[in-house]
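Quarterly update from the structural biology core.
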Amino acid sequence: MSDWLAKIDAALVLSIVEALVYFLVGLLLARMAGRGVRQWSKHRFDSHQQLLMARVATYLVLLVFVVMGLNAIGFNLGVLIGAAGILSVAIGFASQTSASNIISGLFLVAERPFSVGDLIRVGTTTGEVLSVDLLSVKLRTFDNLYVRIPNETLIKSEVTTLTRFPIRRIDLAIGVAYKEDINGVRKVLEKVAEANPLCLDEPKPLFVFLGFGDSSLDMQFSVWVKRENFLELKNSIHEEIKAAFDAEGIEIPFPHRSLYTGSVTEPFPIRVIRD
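Predicted structure, tokenized:
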């Protein structure tokens, strides 16, 4: 009897060791497969697709070796498949939100509105895309915060990809005093754009007179810039415009109000009180 138990224990130990070997080898080969797929797709697909293909390859290889390990210890895979079917139905009813996020993630992969490394804006959140997963998209904001946005939210919301195109436009809202000559102001702005090396010559800067404001002549001056120089130009060109206006004697007014009481009414009395 003791010999029989010893044989059973020895066989069980060998089966467990074999299963562990399958698992460890599978883990190693899964990592190698993921790296191999990533290297193979490096020059064929974008970073988003590379990441997705590498993860699929890793999980598939690992799944094969996990099944082999379970088979080595005598686990009935038919029972596992049946239990997985029942469990999947139960999970499906309990996790409709997760299923919706997975389906939305597939739509994002197919549509590709952005890729890993792009800057996007979703609502009030702006950041760099770190990863696009089955359930969510991870962002890193400009102040180094980690933000997770569910895929379903991205499908239902307006998403702006800030780095989709190689150039961007900066729109500057400018107001000058009513006494200033609009054409003169326009020439000064064009000189500022021409002197700044970050402003592109093509497309040309755009000048638009918006109308008569409460205290100023309102206008818009737009310049084009490479996307990697966007923040640098946006910070510098305001200072250059202010310096150019000061040099030319162009007034940037502050809001003020004039009170009128009519031609018949006596003017408001003004008294100066000295201490």
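The mean pLDDT is 80.
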